[in-house]
Amino acid sequence: MECPLSDTEVAARLLAEGEVEIIAEWLRLQETEGGGGSGRISSAELRVQCDRFLALLRRGLNQGAETAQDAAFAELRDMLRDLSRSRAIQGFTPTETASFIFSLKEVTFRLLQKDVGAAWALNRLLDAFGLYTFESYQRAREEVIARQQREITELSTPVVKLWDSVLALPLIGTLDSERTQVVMENLLQNIVDLNAEIAIIDITGVPTVDTLVAQHLLKTIAAARLMGADCIISGIRPQIAQTMVHLGVDLNVVTKASLADAFALALRRVGQSVTRVVPAARAGA
């Protein structure tokens, strides 16, 4: 006497029998509801994703898996995680990404309604996979945003070689702990690479200097001194100078009003000077 099939095994059998119909209707629903990505992925690529998902789903069901976290669905979870990350990068919304799974529920519900147990088992699984897809999308977006923030921070803290042994670090925007760490690493690495003696930190683009910003500057200056480079701060505007005096902030470092003044001082310290060259024609006249 044959053992009766479990609800998941019945669901797998019905999915296999109606695969052609399911894929066609599933694709149609995704294109109608925007899950196809409005041209961001091709119909052929979407078809491949649907085929693979359905194949992995049937495999897990045939192996007796009952929850989305079962080992039999490990490859399916990997596929959904990669799909979510890819769609996050391509600019899909969370709704469009999750609809890849949830649009399948409508199709399979009509197919499996003749077997309530199989329909219920599959419905619970698709809900779980839909949530897993949504969570994977959110994590991928957070990773993208964090990477972009790091890239922006690095681009906003360039170290420029002004002269032999003289570097400049123009700062733009507010300094916080994370950005200060990037600033310090970039500056120290360039001091070592270029054998710099003077580092000019220009804060013309820093909107305000409060106690916290001053502490971040002091950390950077102290680290540079440990590497054998003296620091000069330029870009001290009148409003910032008044604020620092009011707060009682003492940077304990040479400051200049402009980058040009700081550069001139740096040249004198390294024994260099810039002179005006008189054109030959003017000299002869």
Characterize the structure shown.
It contains eleven helices and five strands. The protein has 285 residues and is of the alpha/beta class. It has two domains: 7-153, Globin-like (Orthogonal Bundle); 160-269, Transcription Regulator spoIIAA (2-Layer Sandwich). It has a five-stranded mixed sheet, sandwiched between helices. Helix 8 (211-226) links the parallel strand 3 (198-205) and strand 4. The longest helix is centred in the middle third of the chain and has 40 residues, at 116-155. The mean pLDDT is 84. InterPro entries: Bact_StressResp_Reg, RsbRD_N_dom, STAS_dom, STAS_dom_sf. Residues 156-270 form the STAS domain. It holds the Pfam family STAS. This is STAS domain-containing protein.
CATH class of the largest domain, named: Mainly Alpha
What is the CATH topology of the largest domain? Globin-like
Number of domains: 2
| General form | elongated
User: What class do helices, strands and sheet pairing give?
Assistant: alpha/beta
Biggest pleated-sheet summary:
5 strands, mixed
Under the CATH scheme, which architecture of the largest domain would be assigned? Orthogonal Bundle
Helix content: 55-70%
DSSP strand tally = 5
- Beta-strand proportion: 5-15%
Segments where pLDDT lies below 50 for 5+ residues? none
Name a few traits of the molecule:
Transcription Regulator spoIIAA; five-stranded mixed β-sheet; Globin-like; 285 residues; 9% strand; alpha/beta; 2 domains
Write the topology of this structure:
Layout: H1 7-17, H2 19-33, H3 43-62, H4 74-90, H5 94-112, H6 116-155, E1 160-163, E2 166-172, H7 177-194, E3 198-205, H8 211-226, E4 230-234, H9 238-247, E5 254-256, H10 259-269, H11 280-284
Parallel strand pairs: 2-3, 3-4, 4-5
Antiparallel strand pairs: 1-2
Helix pairs in contact: 1-3, 1-6, 2-3, 2-5, 3-4, 4-6, 5-6, 7-8
